[in-house]
Amino acid sequence: MDFLRVVLLLLGFLPLAAAMYFDLGEQEQKCIIEEIPEDTLVTGNFFLEPWDVTSFSHSPHLGVTVTVRDPNQEVQLSKRYGKFGKFTFTAHASGQHHLCFQTNTTRFSVFAGERLKLHLDVQMGEHSVDPNMDRTKDNLQILESNLQHLTSQMTYITRQQEYNREKEEIFRQISEETNSKVLWWAVIQTCILLSVGFWQIKRLKDFFIAKKLKKKEKKKKKKKKKKKKQTNFLLNET
């Protein structure tokens, strides 16, 4: 029982999350792309601070506008926050979701050339483990919370696998269509080359036949002229 509890606790504190940070300038917008399955709850936590913490003091006017677009480029979430905040949304369709962040104030424009650092933590799943959970609670309650978290993560993994299978099926269909088009294009090219070859052969054949006929006609004309000269010569002698 103790071993199982330890394993569940360790697994519970390994959420499916993506933590990162990047720089932002005044009124600058940056986006990240997340592959999210359908009906998946996404939770994001962020914190905005100066890139160089010694350059100027924290301004209470700093803020961030969070915009989420679904795979159809429709706005699913657009909200203003302060220096730190938390946003949640549920993916209504599987695919690439764009999470965009833009500073929504110009109060720090006097600090020309300075950059801001945005810390971002994105988690997938409906239930997360609270690291500040009261350790005095009954072990069964802690175990129950971790089991709920694991169930949520298993649900997310299942949806992710289904989404990957859908993508694989789409890719397979595209590959088959592409291979079919390549095959037909090769057949068409072969037919065109054969047609051009036959046409060239026919043209050459017609050319040589015409040239041969012209030579025959010239020979006939020469014979006629020669015969005519001989006839005229005989008539003159007589």
UniProtKB/TrEMBL annotation:
Q: Which UniProt keywords apply?
A: Endoplasmic reticulum, Membrane, Signal, Transmembrane, Transmembrane helix
Domain of life of the organism in this record?
Answer: Eukaryota
This protein's membrane topology, according to the annotation, is:
Single-pass type I membrane protein
Signal peptide boundaries: 1-19
Boundaries of every GOLD domain copy: 29-124
Q: What is its main location?
A: endoplasmic reticulum
Q: Family assignment?
A: Belongs to the EMP24/GP25L family.
What's the protein here called?
Answer: GOLD domain-containing protein
